[in-house]
Amino acid sequence: MLTCAAASGASCCSPRCQRVPGVRALSLGQRAAQESPARPSPWPQTSNFPCRQQGRGWNRARLTTSVLVDRLCPGILAFVGCLEVPGSALLDADGIRASRELYGLVFDAGSTHTALYVYQWPADKENGTGVVSQVESCIVNGSGISSYADNPAGAGASLKPCLDKAMTIIPAQQQRETPTYLGATAGMRLLREQNSTKAEQVFAEVSKAIREYPVDFRGAQILSGNEEGAFGWITVNYLLETLIKYSFTGKWTHPPVEIVVGALDLGGASTQITFLPGTTIDDKNTSAFLRLYGTNYSVYTHSYLCYGQKEVLKRLLASLHQDSLYAQHVSHPCYPKGYQENITIAELYDSPCVPIPSMLSPAQILTVTGTGNPAACRTAILKLFNFTCGANRTCGFDGVYQPPVRGQFFAFSAFYYNLHFLNLTEDQSLSSVNDTLWKFCSRNWMTLQKDFPTRNRIHLRDSCAASSYVLTLLLQGYKFDNKTWLNIHFRKQVSNVDVGWTLGYMLNLTNMIPSEMPQRVVLLPESKWISATVILAVLFVLIFCLIAAICCWKDSSGYESL
């Protein structure tokens, strides 16, 4: 590390040697006098310099060089300091960041759980890109808010621990300007279909709870399936910087549209697919028009209600029960061998996705036994889909139009969690995924419990069924194949931010993604940056030549240096 050497007559250009606020700057001679104790000179004194006449020329050269550097360095540094480097923060007089951080809160009120995300971004970059970071994610205890249909006040109370945590993160003076949102997805969509009054009561209670905190609460709403898919697509591409990118020349540029990725989301009650098809979307009910950074995007998006993981597993068991002609004992090929449980009819048929047959008694007990048969498991899952499609029409399933998949895809939420448990999120081949899943689904319950002692019992029981469903949905449902499978990337985060609809939702509502191309964020135009660079280069060359000339003059003067 360089140190300051002012006492010896050499100045320093390092920022560590520059003026400290509150301390008066000293001249070269004053610094030397303060740093070196006074002592008698061994040389005869003259009226010019305290040194021998014999070494006068070299000392003059050395002092001249020192003075030049001492005078020129601060000027050069001051000139450079006036320039704002692209992406850098402005500094105040004490070298502290002048810009402050802004915050945003988004509740993801899903069907199985609720999570609060705390986002942060620099105030001076609010209209930029790639600057939002995730500070915290807090999982709310209990199930999703839709499960509080008969206890609406409990839904509001459940949010408070996470809100308390958020208030410890956001500075008190900024809390009242922090935009806060609650978005509910398929769980509340189902409750609204089932009982709109209860859905409104739940929303009233969660809104009341949030308003008790000093934040800028901007409302709670139920997202449509297409909105959920589109916002997830925005999140992924925003974080990957595939919509817009800041170049080293100080300009915003649009990357090639081919690198824009698709989004695959699997929640508890619904699943979404969103991508740029590259062709005209025939069914306008499955399209979303987005204008982002001056570019138009017409994306295909569709949400399948009742095809989320939680609802599919209920539908699967109900289907097996119906196939057994509603017997009291049901064999489940997706449950591990040796697993057995008793449930009531009311517990199984408790959702709009699984309506209870009129001839069944809600109190009836049903015994379910696992058989661990992967082939029969996949056959049972396939029966949940309707693959019929109209003539001259390409479909996903259930008669819904879908163009062929195109480009790279990011699969997140339950897509990621299921395959991550089986260590299948490292872009393995389809045959490797099939082999691993087949072996896992053939194992017995006792061995699984011994090998995964910390795994939640219900999650361990459902792992084969859930992962088999993921594979069936992607291959037979969304029409990926052996080749396009390799285009699917199973991810939980991008740039340390959880992937989901929440970030895209907040960016949209806070207008942080402008519809038009943003201006350059540097203060100096590009031409002035080039001029500044040339001026600096010339200055350094002149200083070097001056020092070299002085040294040559010393060598030719005939004086003997001390």
Automatic annotation (TrEMBL):
An annotated GO cellular component: plasma membrane
Catalytic-site annotation from UniProt: E228 (proton acceptor)
Protein name: Ectonucleoside triphosphate diphosphohydrolase 8
Transmembrane domains' residue ranges: 529-553
Organism, scientific name: Meleagris gallopavo (Wild turkey)
Keyword terms, alphabetized: ATP-binding, Calcium, Cell membrane, Disulfide bond, Glycoprotein, Hydrolase, Magnesium, Membrane, Metal-binding, Nucleotide-binding, Transmembrane, Transmembrane helix
Top-level taxonomic group: Eukaryota
Family assignment from sequence similarity: Belongs to the GDA1/CD39 NTPase family.
Residues the record lists as binding ATP: G268, A269, S270, T271, Q272
Cofactor: Ca(2+); Mg(2+)
Alphabetized GO MF terms: apyrase activity; ATP binding; GDP phosphatase activity; metal ion binding; ribonucleoside triphosphate phosphatase activity; UDP phosphatase activity
EC number: 3.6.1.5
Compartment(s): Cell membrane
A single BP term in Gene Ontology: nucleoside diphosphate catabolic process
PROSITE patterns per record: GDA1_CD39_NTPASE
PANTHER family in the cross-refs: ADENOSINE/GUANOSINE DIPHOSPHATASE (PTHR11782), ECTONUCLEOSIDE TRIPHOSPHATE DIPHOSPHOHYDROLASE 8 (PTHR11782:SF31)
Coiled-coil residues: none
Topology of this chain in the membrane: Multi-pass membrane protein
Reaction(s) catalysed (UniProt annotation): a ribonucleoside 5'-triphosphate + 2 H2O = a ribonucleoside 5'-phosphate + 2 phosphate + 2 H(+)
InterPro entries per record: GDA1_CD39_NTPase (IPR000407)
Principal localisation: membrane
Top EC category: hydrolase
A Pfam family this chain is assigned to: GDA1_CD39
